[in-house]
Amino acid sequence: MDMKEKIQKKFETLFGGEGDFFASAGRINLIGEHTDYNGGYVFPGAIDKGIVAEIKLNGTDKVHAYSLDYDEYVEFGLNEEDAPNQSWAKYIFGVCRETEKRGGKVEGFNTAFAGDVPLGAGLSSSAALESTFAYALNYLFNNGIDKFELAKIGQSTEHNYCGVNCGIMDQFASVFGRKGSLIRLNCKTLEYKYFPFDPKGYKLVLLDSCVKHELASSAYNKRRKSCENAALAIRKNHPEVEFLSDAKRVWLDEVRNNISGEDFLRAEYVIGEVQRVLDVSDALERGDYDTVGELMYQTHFGLSRLYEVSCEELDFLNKIARQCDVTGSRVMGGGFGGCTINLVKDELYDKFISIAIEKFSVKFGHEPKVYDVVISDGARKL
Ligand code: GLA
Question: Could you tell me which CATH class the domain 202-373 is placed in?
Answer without folding.
Answer: alpha beta
